[in-house]
Amino acid sequence: MLSFADESAATRFAARFGTDAFSRGAIVLQYAAARTPEDQRAQFESSLATLVE
Length: 53
What we know:
alpha+beta; 45% helix
């Protein structure tokens, strides 16, 4: 999980990783280094969306 100064910076960073990243607001979940299983990604993304909104 990475935090950026603003949503724009987070979105640009996440775009570089395609499906290996998810951004919401200024937070990015970057999965490649952690090798996060596909079935757990949806849970992480849902939790982040709930926290940020």
